[in-house]
Design goal:
This protein is 49% helix and 16% strand. The chain has 5 helices and 3 strands. The longest helix is centred in the N-terminal third of the chain and has 25 residues. It is of the alpha+beta class. The chain is flat and about 70 Å long.
């Protein structure tokens, strides 16, 4: 880890192998600092080695392609197909939010009994569950109405 990222992690009391989902944003911040510093180092290496512009390859006119890229909440896998008229014939995305659903469910199931044992009222339970979901993905609970809490009497 870059020394600046290490320093930030220490200042935020973030340690390796943290299983606390509420620390996700802290982990991402430390990762960004590391990535920016490491990117600067790599760019300096490339420029120092005598970078020479190259002609870009001619793009394929049609076909199918896949890719994967790291994004803030995990890895986005994506695939697209194009016909000879350059019309998209299909696409498939496996987004990190979907990859996190099982962990979100398990964490919700572990949190509810603790909230009930602590005597939390319905509003507090709902807020705590929403906070947990947002720790995994800050947009999901609002954009998709992920969480619907029903209290049975």
């Amino acid at each position: 880890m870059h020394p600046e990222a290490k320093k930030l992690a220490e200042a935020l009391k973030f340690k390796p192998l943290c299983f606390n989902p509420y620390m996700n944003s802290v982990a991402q911040l430390v990762e960004v600092v590391h990535s920016v510093k490491d990117s600067i180092r790599l760019i300096d290496e490339v420029l120092g080695a005598g970078y020479k512009p190259e002609e870009l390859a001619k793009p394929t006119q049609h076909g199918q392609g896949q890719g994967g890229v790291e994004v803030p909440r995990g890895i986005l896998f994506h695939e697209y197909g194009y016909d000879k008229d350059l019309m998209c014939t299909g696409g498939n995305c496996i987004i990190p939010t979907n990859q996190n659903h099982a962990n979100i469910q398990l964490d919700l199931e572990a949190l509810v009994p603790k909230l009930l044992a602590a005597g939390k009222d319905e509003k507090a339970i709902e807020l705590n569950l929403e906070m947990l979901v947002r720790a995994y993905d800050p947009c999901i609970s609002c954009s998709t109405h992920y969480l619907k809490v029903e209290f049975k009497r």
